[in-house]
Amino acid sequence: MRLVLTGGGTGGHIYPALAIGREAAEKEPGTSLLYIGTTRGLESRLVPAQGLRFESVDITGFRRSLSLENVRTIARFVQAVRRSKKLLREFKPDAVVGTGGYVCGPVVYAASRLGIPTLIHEQNVVPGLTNKFLSRYARAVSVSFADSLPHFAGRQNVKFAGNPVASAVAKADPMMGFASLGLTAGTPFVLAVGGSRGAKALNDAVLAMLPGLADLKNVHLVFVTGDRYYEEASARLRELPAELSGRVHALPYAHNMPEVLAASSLVVSRAGATSLAEITSLGVPAILVPSPNVTNNHQQPNAESLASAGAAEMILERDLTGEKLLASVSSIMRDSARRERMALASRELGKPRAAEDIYEQLTGIIRHK
């Protein structure tokens, strides 16, 4: 297979594209992959580090208000479509996969104009502007949440497949998670993580609830602070009494997050699409604090989807306090039957075969081109 991947800006768009590429390469040894992104996005660093060929186009996103910059963006789009067509004619792909971000616009559109089969993958419940636009040109649409399906009503070949990053995470070994933390296997612990860079509001609430953890006997807390907040958090943790500080484990970053997540009893997290794919793939009960600082507030519908299924509790950041977080953590950790119900609901939402299902959808549109 010859496959073009495109998606950029954030890891939430890039990692699903790479996961689809890996699945294709595993299924068909000798597969050739080309990734098209922008030099501004994270993909310009992540993709070459994976040993994949990377090419760039110059494109920016539209502003949501009337602006002269939008006129320039249209001009960039036209140029980016021309550049994309040139790259596609040279590479001669069997298909193009777009996973969101404005760079997908010219690449997937160019592919459709050239008659190349295209598939787009939407990670969030509410689709981004680019995927909404591209859905009218794509041969297939794959979504991470069942709640996304109505947004693509009337489009062809729409499938609830899940997020492909879940496929690798589903194989994570919890025993390795316990060992990496220096905990005895089976130790109940709450994992609090605000993403790779950390989240100040979530961190502040975790720090504020720490004294109350004394009442949760034998329950540990694994606190992934993010690099920039680690020193501040560590200073606060040193103020805790010895009997409590021994149950709190602070890390700036967890390099084996899937294994740590697999071992956890409960996770306190943001509600990014990749995080939720990992959580549901492993069936971990969750308390979700969606970030309000993202485009279209897309994390809140993501969190609501899990909460409505009984897999998570949601606390909006404007309502988040140490007291409220402690009450939720205590309620869930004291009720093993409820935790098991949440875990079951989470697993029912999880799609550990997502990458394989998307690969099958992709090969289907290639066969019928």
From TrEMBL:
Q: Say if the entry is tagged with keyword Cell division.
A: yes
Q: Which InterPro entries match?
A: GlcNAc_MurG (IPR006009), Glyco_trans_28_C (IPR007235), GlycoTrans_28_N (IPR004276)
Where is it localised?
Cell membrane
Q: Does the keyword Plastid apply?
A: no
What's its catalytic activity?
di-trans,octa-cis-undecaprenyl diphospho-N-acetyl-alpha-D-muramoyl-L-alanyl-D-glutamyl-meso-2,6-diaminopimeloyl-D-alanyl-D-alanine + UDP-N-acetyl-alpha-D-glucosamine = di-trans,octa-cis-undecaprenyl diphospho-[N-acetyl-alpha-D-glucosaminyl-(1->4)]-N-acetyl-alpha-D-muramoyl-L-alanyl-D-glutamyl-meso-2,6-diaminopimeloyl-D-alanyl-D-alanine + UDP + H(+)
Annotated metabolic or biological route of this protein: Cell wall biogenesis; peptidoglycan biosynthesis
What does the entry give for GO biological process?
A: carbohydrate metabolic process; cell division; cell wall organization; peptidoglycan biosynthetic process; regulation of cell shape
Superkingdom is Bacteria
Q: Which UniProt keywords apply?
A: Cell cycle, Cell division, Cell membrane, Cell shape, Cell wall biogenesis/degradation, Glycosyltransferase, Membrane, Peptidoglycan synthesis, Transferase
Q: Name one Pfam family in it.
A: Glyco_tran_28_C
One Gene Ontology cellular component:
plasma membrane
UniProt GO MF annotations: undecaprenyldiphospho-muramoylpentapeptide beta-N-acetylglucosaminyltransferase activity
* Start and end residues of each Glycosyl transferase family 28 C-terminal domain: 190-357
Domain Glycosyltransferase family 28 N-terminal, residue spans: 4-141
Membrane-topology annotation of the record: Peripheral membrane protein
Which Enzyme Commission numbers does its entry carry? 2.4.1.227
Listed binding positions for UDP-N-acetyl-alpha-D-glucosamine are T10, G11, G12, N124, S196, Q299
NCBIfam families hit by this protein: murG
Q: What does this protein do?
A: Cell wall formation. Catalyzes the transfer of a GlcNAc subunit on undecaprenyl-pyrophosphoryl-MurNAc-pentapeptide (lipid intermediate I) to form undecaprenyl-pyrophosphoryl-MurNAc-(pentapeptide)GlcNAc (lipid intermediate II).
The family line of this record is: Belongs to the glycosyltransferase 28 family. MurG subfamily.
The name this protein goes by in its record: UDP-N-acetylglucosamine--N-acetylmuramyl-(pentapeptide) pyrophosphoryl-undecaprenol N-acetylglucosamine transferase
Which organism is this entry from? Cohnella zeiphila
